[in-house]
Specification:
The protein is mainly α. The chain has two helices and no strands.
Length: about 60
Amino acid sequence: MELTLTPEEHNLLLRILEQHHQALLREIWHTDSREFKSALQNDEKQLESLLGRMRQPLVRQHHA
């Protein structure tokens, strides 16, 4: 799947995901259930990977 975003949309989505990441880390910290914590940690790993890719400099595509 490919999603084309404007730079402004990219920055907005990045900020939203960073905020959710922080909330997810707090949720993991406060969760007692091992099973639920494990599921949250899996989500956090995937989100961290996505954020890493989104934090890379934007590459502008030039159409001929």
